[in-house]
Design brief:
The protein is of the alpha+beta class. It contains seven helices and 17 strands. It has helices spanning 14-23, 59-67, 71-82, 97-106, 188-195, 221-228, 251-255; strands spanning 4-10, 32-33, 38-40, 43-44, 50-56, 89-93, 110-122, 128-138, 147-154, 171-181, 201-202, 206-211, 214-219, 239-248, 262-264, 267-270, 279-284.
Amino acid sequence: MRPIDHLVLPVAALASARERLSKLGFQVSPDARHPFGTGNARVFFKNRTYLEPIATLDQAVVDKGIAEGLVFLDRIEKASARAPEGFAMLALKGDDAEEALDAYRQKGFGVGDLFSFVGKARNDAGEETEYGVRLAFAADPKAPEAAIFVCQPVGMSVNTGTHYCDHPNGAEGVVAVAAVAKNPADFHVFLSAATGQRELRATSFLVEADLGSKKLLLMTPAGFENRYGVAAPDPGDGFVFAAFEVLVDNVEKTRQFAPDGMRHAERLVVPPAPGLGTVLAFVEHQ
């Protein structure tokens, strides 16, 4: 079983993502630039998950990376072709990306080579520090717009669970990710392989993987609308990531930061908007 590490959220511009997320009551860390043509800003949480809004900063460098087989860039481009902003990939925690990629390949879901890079980010003092990751990607050929990957930190961890984690909206971390497929059962084997979770809960409208204290839900469009009260994106013949849930200490307190949100069951659901192109649902402690 591999817990959720972070969510890859393509955006048109980092400035618009920072504005949107800040208005929603999140503290956003300083921008960082990747050596392969993209840049990000992050929202870190105390439960060691984080959001990664990501934008293309140099299209020529991105195109070169895609031509060289960089799965990370390819999936961002494919997801962005369907919708300029959204939710492209789910990253899971792992201690050995090479072992994970071998396992993915053995099950027929490994994509590309092991991807390693070193990036730079500014610490609390404004000084640039280096961090590294190794990534192993899994994808189902039937779902060209989505991918799940294992993220192994190398050297300094990008998320300590302490820096930039005090959010005015009371957010404590991502607790669920939701994807949509016309027939979730078609991806049961893939989700089991990608998450390392052998036992998945399955019904006619849902496949659910328990990832420690967090969940990955793959549901039908009708199931998605029932859970969130908004229409699901069209997944075509594959599946697409469509929403994530963030735990807060008090939904009513959080509501002041989300005037466009609506209460649906026990959730405060925020629709997609420029700067965050996917559904966000706030939930509080039970």
